[in-house]
Design a protein that fits this description.
The chain is of the alpha/beta class. It is about 45% helix and about 20% strand. The longest helix has 23 residues, at about 460-480. The structure holds 6-O-phosphono-beta-D-fructofuranose. This is Trehalose 6-phosphate synthase /trehalose 6-phosphatase.
């Protein structure tokens, strides 16, 4: 790769995440490259394209031969992306198995007494983290800053620390860190904590996540803790909260663009100006509370018949991890529920739930954010949730209502949303009624306050804060060791 020979710059930043912001799909003659879904890719993606960082990760496909590997590598190389190629077994065991069937449910408080802790999943989790290490050590220079992301790579900071002892390593977790009573269920909990402690600075979305991590580290590793600073193997490690933001400017610009205005006109033509629109956008995931949201909407139609024919739920579910059995099952349940609600309530010229199971380009999402009277972001548990912030950023007229789950990291910042407990279906129905009847002045009061937060704490701000804190930790370590 050209990066290994790049000597023009003394040091660079290397981002590492399981998935690259670009996804490779096999098509009949060759490959197609599309954008990846999820908060990590959209959030960090804007930063990567504006900066000269390098991004290492999996291109989202099992590549069968060296020629394909070379083609994909050279396409990605032009975009400062470096692939880590994974085999089909790696994907089954490390990605679908350990990451998405063991860590994901536990970290989202979805622990099942029947959880299947497969030893082979763990073996692959270790070997794939090692594969990532091999690529990083090929690309990294001694003065580079290495920034590892998310739960698929919890062992990588530790592996990096052994391979490159003096390096600067940051780690950011995009999903919640659970209470110790859940985390301790994982058979390999101590190894995971030791892996994370290879970093100099560990970032989480909320203070609760930090607290839970510190708790687990204190119980499972030989650390000395003082406030949010740990000493591990003679090295100072800091854990702090850095709530991630969005590229606010981009959503403002989109909202004012002609192409988005055109899309808004299309949406209005279908839903009419009079009919009220509730928007829901998620990746397919049981942590997102999609079924509970449908239940709340159905309860509204049942208990408040005046809204039949007057309110529509525009629901986008973006396909994700549909090879994991739990996700496939969820998809079927959603399909059935939507079918039932529509069959029961629809009229000749009104459909209660406009349901889409596919990704949409950002211009169409922007138009939906602009058209929706209410945006419902009601996950059962979510690290941050950037959809809530995108809705707020898009509301250039300073109206609209955000209904937000208390269990999303964003609820710690967007305190002027209507906050709900997504397990309380009746309270979600009540929140919809409150939203539908909220006076414009009150909508504006809340929206202005939320927009201040979103406009100030952008993704660029988040990154700068994390990076400067990481540099500070490094300095503190040096001054401690030379004392
Ligand atoms: O933002 C959280 C996250 O889990 C990322 O780590 C991940 O890339 C994204 O959601 C989407 O999931 P996946 O990469 O499994 O499609």
């Amino acid at each position: 790769s050209s990066y290994t020979t790049n000597t023009e710059k003394m040091s660079k930043t290397i981002i590492i995440s399981n998935r690259l912001p670009v996804k490779v799909n096999q098509i009949e003659h060759g490959f197609q490259f599309t954008s990846s879904e999820g908060g990590l890719a959209t959030g960090l993606g804007s930063m990567h394209s504006a900066d000269d960082t390098i991004w290492i990760g999996w291109p989202g496909i099992a590549v069968k031969n060296k020629e394909d590997e070379a083609n994909i590598t050279s396409f990605l190389d032009k975009r400062r992306l470096v692939p880590v190629f994974l085999s089909e077994e790696d994907i089954n065991e490390y990605y679908e198995g350990f990451s998405n069937d063991i860590i994901w449910p536990i970290f989202h408080y979805y622990a099942s007494v029947h959880a299947n802790y497969k030893q082979s999943n763990w073996e692959y989790y270790k070997s794939v983290n090692q594969k990532f290490l091999d690529v990083v050590t090929r690309v990294a220079g001694p003065d580079d800053t290495i920034w590892v992301h998310d739960y698929q790579l919890l062992l990588l900071p530790g592996l990096l620390r052994s391979a490159l002892p003096g390096s600067t390593i940051g780690f950011f977790q995009h999903i919640p860190f659970p209470s110790f009573e859940l985390f301790r269920l994982i058979p390999w909990r101590s190894e995971l904590i030791a892996g994370m402690l290879g970093a100099d600075l560990l970032g989480f979305h909320t203070f609760n996540d930090v607290r839970h991590f510190l708790d687990a580290a204190t119980q499972l590793a030989p650390v000395n803790t003082s406030a949010n600073s740990l000493t591990y193997e003679g090295r100072m490690v800091l854990a702090e909260s850095f709530p991630m933001g969005i590229d606010n400017r981009r959503y403002l610009d989109l909202a004012k663009s002609d192409v988005v205005k055109q899309h808004v006109a299309e949406v209005k033509a279908v839903h009419t100006n009079k009919r009220r629109l509730i928007l829901s956008i998620d990746r397919l995931d049981y942590s997102k509370g999609i079924l509970q949201r449908l239940q709340a909407f159905e309860l509204l139609l049942e208990s408040n018949p005046e809204y039949v024919g007057e309110v529509a739920l525009h629901m986008i579910v973006v396909p994700s991890r549909d090879t994991v059995p739990q996700y496939r099952d969820l998809k079927e349940l959603i399909d059935r529920r939507v079918g039932e609600i529509n069959a029961k309530y629809r009229t000749i010229n009104w459909t209660p739930v406009y349901y889409f199971y596919r990704p949409f380009p950002i211009e169409e999402l922007s138009a939906l954010y602009l058209s929706a009277d209410i945006c419902m972001v009601t996950p059962m548990r979510d690290g941050m949730n950037l959809v809530s912030k995108e809705y707020v950023a898009s509301r250039v007229n300073q109206d609209g209502v955000l209904i937000l789950s208390e269990m999303a990291g964003a609820a710690k910042e967007l305190v002027d949303a209507i906050l709900v407990n997504p397990s309380n279906i009746a309270s979600m129905r009540d929140a919809i009624v409150t939203g539908l009847t909220m006076p414009k002045a009150e909508q504006k009061r809340r929206m202005v306050l939320m927009q201040r937060v979103v406009a100030k704490f952008t993704v660029a701000h988040w990154m700068k804060l994390f990076m400067s804190r990481l540099a500070e930790v490094k300095q503190m370590q040096t001054s401690l060791s030379t004392r």
